[in-house]
Amino acid sequence: MRYSLVMFGAILAAGVVGCKGKDSASADAGFLANASVEAKDALASPVDFQLTEDNFAKWEIAERNLDGVPPGEFSSAPAQAGSAVDRAVARLESSPRARRAIEGAGLSVRDFVLETVALAQAVQAAQLGRSTVASGVGAENFAFVERYRDRIRRSGLEADISRQSGDAEVTDPNTRAELESANADRIADSVANADTAGGEIRMRKSGGDSAADSLRD
Fold this sequence. Notes:
Layout: H1 4-20, H2 24-27, H3 36-44, H4 53-65, H5 84-93, H6 96-103, H7 109-127, H8 132-135, H9 139-147, H10 149-155, H11 157-165, H12 173-216
Helix pairs in contact: 1-3, 4-6, 5-7, 7-9, 7-11, 9-12
């Protein structure tokens, strides 16, 4: 199972699920479906975390590392006080395996949780067609999830959010402008990468032709 929001919601809900007698399968149904109060609190928590290529690459590695850690490993962790983010951090840190999986990727447990929430908030804002002003999501994070949408989709995070919110038509002009700008940046990056790859191929071909000419001479 991909970690993303499904596992994150299960961790947040671990103590609550035990008290209410729900089975573990229901806890894995979705980030906002059954972890409800805890997960929604986390998603609604304002977080000051800027998404970057570097920390997202580490987050992807941590997520893959966490695939082998079963959600049930967190159910025995004692209940923690504090915010939903604090509780998620405490539950992850209660598992030596989870902690090693995250820190081995180069992130602290707290930064992993903050990045998961920041990603979820930015993805949800984009899917619901809410501008950065309306959602409270930073413009940099909003643009980031548009630029790296394909990689975020592969993580499973975007699908988790879609199941809860559904895709919405973007009608807000500020949101549309932000999406168009981010999409233009993504296309420009793709073109630049293609040009770089094409140049390398041409250089290799030119080098091969020169070598062949030398042999003929």
